[in-house]
Amino acid sequence: MPQTADLLQGTLDMLILKAIVNEPQHGWAIALRIQQVSKNVLQVGQGSLYPALHRLEYRGWIKAQWGASENNRKARFYSLTIAGKKQLVAELENWQRLAGAVNLVLAEI
Amino acid sequence: MLNELWSRVRFFFGSKQREEVDEEIGFHMEREVEANLAAGMSTEEARRQAAIAFGGRERARERCREERPSWSLELLLRDVRFAFRGLARNYGLSLIAILTLAIAICANTTIFSLLNQALLRALPVSRPDELVVLSFAGSFYGHHHSEGGSDEGHVHEFSYPMYRDLSDKNTALSGLIASVPAGVGVTWNNRSEAVSSEMVSGNYFETLGVRPALGRLFVASDESAPGANPVAVLNFDYWKTHLAEAPVEGQTLLVNGTPFTIVGVAAPGFHSAVWGRMPDVYVPITMQRTVQPEWDMLNDRKSYWITLAGRLRPGITLQQATASLNALFLSERRIEFPTLADTTESTRKAFIDAAHLNVDAGARGFSPMRDDLKTPLTIIMGMVLLVIVMAVVNVASLLLVRAANRVREFSVRYALGATNGQILRQLLCEGLLLGIFGAGLGLASAPAALAMLIRWLAHGSDGEQIFTATLDWRVFAFTAAATLIGSLVFSLAPAIQFWNPRLVDSLKQQAGTGKGSSLRFGKTCVALQIGFSLLLLVGAGMFVRTIQNLRSVNPGYETEHLLAFNLAPAIAGYPASGVAPVEQRALDAIAALPGVRAVGATNDEDLVGDGVEGDVEVSGYKAKPNEEYDVELPWVSSGYLESLGVPLIAGRMLNAGDTATSQKVSVVNESFVKHYFANAQAALGQHVNRPGNKNRASVDTVVVGVVGDVKHASVRDPAAPTCYMHYLQQSRAAGLTYYVRTWQAPQTAANGIRAAVANIDPKLIVNDIKPMTQAIDGSIQDQRAMAWLAAIFGGIAALLTGIGLYGILAYSTAQRTREIGIRMALGAQRGTVVQLILRETLILAGCAVGVTIPIALLTARAVRSQLFGVSIVDPVVYVSGVLAICVVAAVAAFVPARRAASIDPSKALRTE
Question: What is the pTM of this model?
Fold first, then answer.
């Protein structure tokens, strides 16, 4: 199994938002997607995935709908709201700035 | 932002159900299992791996719940529910705690409402903080007409000319107002009744900022030439209750028989610039002759009868106003000085040099009534505060007992992982719940209690009630603060016990010996309560003794079978010359009634706290230099002394032979003789002269008799030197109070008197007819109310002590089950065990009593002014207080002691 990295506090929210930016997804697919796209580096702790989804939903950044899954099972699909899109943009910007800053420091020393 | 808020609100109400979360997680697991199967695992392995990957499902569910926006509220609700269950499980104890608090808070709210109205609340006028009250220091000579509240250095009555000058010439006040209360007879729709009036200056309402409810109020021009402008303004309550809110504007009302035009009705809630006055009718001060026909005071600089209040001009400070008004006042005094009878240098010093005008802040107005009520209300409030402290201590000790009995519950909770914070939160929750229930119950019952108290205070006194049965925000704030602090205090008491990192050790210790710190705290609580309640019981005893003494005081004559009433012909519209004849006719008519043994009348009502005093010149007596000696000077009818039953010592009483035209005579009492003469015989035949002034001619009388001393002004005061003169031999007529000694029941006699008076003239009003005993009760109403309240609070205190003591002892004996079991196994008798516990309790009570007695003595000394005929070391009061406490303590101790004594030793030894 490849090495996994712990998710930075707060980055999970951003990753979830990013994962559903194009189309609504259910929880399992979100976890899978993050894992696959990160080439198995980022393992979403599934116990913390659902609380995070609920938190985002309560904050109004994503909304959930019951729908049929690819194997025709009832599943909850999450999609971004307008506020969620704004939030994603803001978080991405923030992340870029932070990552850039960290890189700068690392490059210097 | 708005979106987020909206979604929070939405989820707050429609939170997701548990099943939804379950279903979602279930779906996730299924997919995971499918994926694992696809990866080639066996069914069982696939499930196992999926479960491992997901982690704790219950924990995930829990965390989903914690994300809910309503989570903190749910947590609180859970705590409250938990606390509620905790209280309900021990409902007896909770009920006692809630009732304890409710009683304390109800008492507090009720008494504080009265205190607030009497002592704190500003007058219901616009911008009351600008109001000032005027009074003066310095000697004055002439006629002084006071309703009380004045003392050396603060005389609150001024003459009308002085008022006019101060009002017209000052630059510091935007308005200076004058007011004087007076009783008048009012006739409306041919129905006459005696009401209260207030004579006021023209700018009175305008300066106070009172608006009319109907028509107009007075303006400056209404204060015109004396007697020229008979107009009246009605009080709102009077208009409502007596005139049925009739459209009275422009209508005519008879005041003392003179027609007055009603110009308007004052706004509701307004009574007077002086708190405690409850006038029904306002008339211009220039109508004084009509209101008080026997006096002519408007132009007299030596008649001091008007109370003054003013409104500061914006930007003027109290000091500036005092300086400018004082200068004005002194210059007026210099003008008045040459008109004095005595213009020596010493008089000049006292009249001008020592004189000073005081301008005091007066948002609450000048009020003799407030001065009278201040001390009693403060004392009662002090008692209430003691009761509150006791209630809090009581609830604290009850909760402590309860907490001690819940040691096991708390240990289990600790063992299951509860943190100190959670335990603390639970205790605080329980305490606050008790506080809220107690306060709620107390506040809910307060209005009824207040209404009852006010009705009860009003019972026996006449006229309208000065207190209104309204609770206001200050009362609520005060109560809320008291409850909150109380709740915190008592909920923290058990928390301290559990706030202990080495709880297990302390638990073991406690179970073994029953001598834990909580018990010490409990004993301190009990000792405190015993002390407090002894203090209250002693206070109650003092006041009850006072009231007993006041009621049983012998005024010098029999008060049973004596009926008193007023008859004011002036109020029925009789001119001054017609008053005396109609009074004589009334006396004759009543004397002729069957069952009447004697009848008499006086212008100076007995035993109700009033007096008519003045100086006299006595022949053969050489006054000491600067002697100021005032004697009581009642004008009485022949038959008055006999109807009261005042004993004759020498000479004769006044009799039918003394008439308006015969030799003027007087009868003096023993105190009078003692001051002026060698003995009673020496007084006979001497002259007593009442010097005259602008209002009356001098009256020179010959002493024809000497009578024994009787109490006159009130039952509290000793008999004063008195000179009784005949009312027919005076320069003017006066309203008289009649005393009828009768064989009959009071009601029958009263009906007979009413009929006899109506027979003379139906316009005459028989007022305030009541037995003398009732009149005396009415005059000591304040003391009676105080004694009752003190007794009630003393009783509550004793009850609280009993409850607290019982709680602590029940707990401590339960803790000592093992020890008692051993004692009994070693041969102790049941009686010995009971004795053991009783002895310990009584020793505790004894210590508390020992500490409290000196404090009680000091407290009693502080309230001495309110006591009558009872020493502050009165043994009866202290002994009965201590006895009461001991009985309460013994009863409270006996029940747990009995329970302890009925322990079966073999069982007791097996506990723990």
Answer: 0.69
